[in-house]
Amino acid sequence: MWANKRAGPPAVGPQKRLVIKGLRAIPALPANYKTDTLARLRGAIQAIQLSQPTPQGLEELYRDCEGLCLHKFGSDVYAMVQAELVAYTRQRLDEINRLSDTPVGESVLQLTTQFWTGYTQQLDMIKCIFLYLDRTYVLQSANVASLWSMGLGVVRQCLVDTDMKSRLVRLVLGEVAKERDGKPADQTSLLGLVQMFVDLGLYSQFFMPSLIDVTRDYYVKESRRLVGSLVAIQPAEGPRPSTPASAMSVPQYLVHVKLRLDEETQRAALYLSSNSKAPLLSTVLAELVEKHAERLLTTSFDAMVDAHMLADLANLYTLLSSVNQLDVIKRYWAMYVKKVGVRLVQAPDIDVGLVSELLAMKQRLDDIVKSAFQSNSVLAHALRESFEDFINSRRSKPAQLTAKFVDQCMRAGSRSTTDEDIDSLLDRVVVLFRFIHDKDLFEAYYKRDLAKRLLYNKSVSVDTERSMVQKLRMECGPGFTKRLEGMLRDMDFTSDLDGKFTGLDQAQEANGIGFHTSILTQAFWPTYEPMPLAVPRNVELAQEEFVQFYSEKHNGRKLFWQPNLGTCLLKVEFDEGPKELSLTLVQGTVMLLFSERDVLSYEQIQENTGLEDVELMRTLQSLACGKCRVLAKEPKGRDVAGTDVFTFNSAFKSSQTRIKIGQIMLKEAEKESKEVEEHVQLDRMYQVDAAIVRIMKGRKQADHTTLMTELLSRLKFNSTSAEVKERIETLIERDYIKRDDADSSLYHYLA
Amino acid sequence: MKLTITDWRAVAGWKWDVPDDDVCGICRAAFDACCPQCKIPGDDCPLIWGECSHVFHMHCLLKWLGAESSQQQCPMDRRPWVTAS
Q: What is the residue range of B55's domain?
């Protein structure tokens, strides 16, 4: 119903008209509106700056500012605020700046800090009141900074204009220096001021360069003073002598440097801006460590290593490696290793002890690399290189001694008892062996010793022998150990074969005397000079039985008895009672002659055994002139002559029932090592020959220098050019190569 | 007997049963040394005897017999090769 009514036409009546007319007069602001309002605001700012409550409420002030801005008086308001800030800042800073550096009351730094804290608080408040200004006028106009930045700019400008900036920096740095000298510093003011520099944007352009400069100066002086008066390392024991505080040893100095670094780190964390930590520390390091690296190492590096000062070496390493001076350490490290090593290796009267010393040295230095140098690969490599260098500074001797050392370890009854001990010891020896260039020489000696251990049954255990050979094989490849492995294999075959033989009926004679044989493949074993020896009849029979047995098993082989290698046990009836003598075969053969006759002359013995003079004399000496005299000699004496007469010494006495009489070895050992070396030398000659021919065959022609360089790079052992020249001469003689007719340094290959 | 042997440990080395310094007719290397393919003489590089009485490194001879031109003959006397038992 009412809907209809609404839709209906308006009530009938005279039409009314609404007319809008323009204002007659534009509403004017009160004449003093702007001035009054500005004055009110100015009063408020001044009240804030005096830390007094504002006469008007803050809301009211905000409205005032808003009003002014709405009436487009923004720029006036801005100018007024700026003027107020400038006036206030000028006045306060001038007051502070007028004070001397050491005022009676609060210091310039403290006052400045106070001013700054107050000022920022005030500025914050002012900013809030004039927020509308910031939001409108400042945003809409170009090149007008916000109130906050303007406020900071005012202070910055003021500081720059009045040169107070430099003064403040100087004072702050003075405070830092004070702290470095260990005096108390005003950390609160420092923190405040640094914060001020950061806020004002003065820190990185202005403050930091000065800070770094001053730091550098400070540490230049300090390091000059400390490094200049470095003293040698004092003995660790006993009270520290009262040296002046400035005189430090290198380790002390390093500790001091570390302390300084910690201090600077703390300082940076405490009141410097975080981005200054890195430049600060690098300045300290550069001045205290980098520039003096050489000096520090010259003064005490060797002594520190000698004294095994792990912690101090670790300090040295960390500091120097943090300034990239690793090369310097490396140089000194290598020098040290070589110096100590050469002293050991070049000593005139070195013996097997050398190897233990080298092992100890290696272990000590390894320990340093591991614990102090953080297993740095460069330094570890330098260690290895230097070892290789000095160990080869003397020819052949280290190789020989290392082989001998291994022999001592592997002999039954050696010092180290358990297998594990020996194993780890051998592992270390192998490391040493790795450095030695004369590996062929080592092999020759090792082979000789291994042969003795195996044949005389002196080895600690077969497993140890095998594991050592295995280690060498890992080191030098199967070619190197093939012979050694062959020797061990021969021993296996031998015991197998021996078992089969003694089980046979035909081995009657042999079993009667406990006859056993070791069969050696000649090619694996060291070559022994054949020795003529007429063995006792029953032994001869046993040997024949064995030969027959062997040739049935192995066609096409010939056996050579090697009487200089075997051993035997003899039961001998002395007056005191039966004794068992453990002898070499030669000694045994000589002794057995006395089973039928008591007295024999030298000539008779020689006739019956067929031994050569040298061997026979040696043997008789061991039986008649040694510790256990089972023969008596007439006339008495230390040496054996061709006219002597020997008698069975039935009165021989001993507390033991089994007696071992050693062969006299001394001369033998010397001769032996000479032999070994000659043998190796011969092998090397062939290798040189082969290498030369191979190179020349490839190149057809080469001049002397090229040939030498290539040759030396191919040969695995050290070779002098004189030796090589000699080989070239013989090759020319044998028509493998020839000299060029015109150019004598040029060689041609002859097909 | 006042002296009796209770234990006698002899040592013997073996070589190929060929005249000293004799060389293999194929490779001309000594029998005591090994054939050119091998590095270490001994069991690994044995000799082989023919019924014709000629001896060679086994490796050398097998290589020779493997070649067609050999016609399975002994390289020394051209008789058919028969290995001695």
A: 19-85
pLDDT digits (tens, 9 = 90+) for A671-722: 677 777 788 888 888 888 888 888 888 888 888 888 888 888 877 777 777 8
Distance from CA of B4 to the nearest CA of A (A): 5
**From the CB of residue A164, how many other CB atoms can be counted at a distance below 10 Å?**
19
Contact A570 B4 (CB under 8 A): yes
Of the CA atoms within 13 Å of residue A360, those in its CB half-sphere come to 9
Average pLDDT of the residues of chain A? 84
> Model pTM?
0.73
Between A and B, how many CB-CB pairs are < 8 A? 136
The answer on A657 and A723 residing in a single domain is no
Could you report the predicted ipTM of this complex, rounded to two decimals? 0.84
Taking only residues 78 to 107 of chain A, the set having a beta carbon closer than 8 angstroms to any beta carbon of chain B reads none
For tokens 């007051």, the residue is A95
User: For chain B, what is the domain count?
Assistant: 1
Listed in sequence order, the DSSP H helices in A181-292 are 187-199, 208-228, 250-271, 277-288
CB proximity A514 to B under 8 Å: yes
Q: Is the distance from CB of A404 to CB of A427 less than 8 angstroms? A: no
Residue A290: φ, ψ to 5°: -55, -50
Closest CA–CA distance from residue B27 to any residue of chain A (Å) = 17
Contacts of B1 in chain A (CB under 8 A): 595
Question: Do both A611 and A685 map to the same domain?
Answer: no
Residue A400 lies in a domain: yes
Residues A446 and A464 in one domain: yes
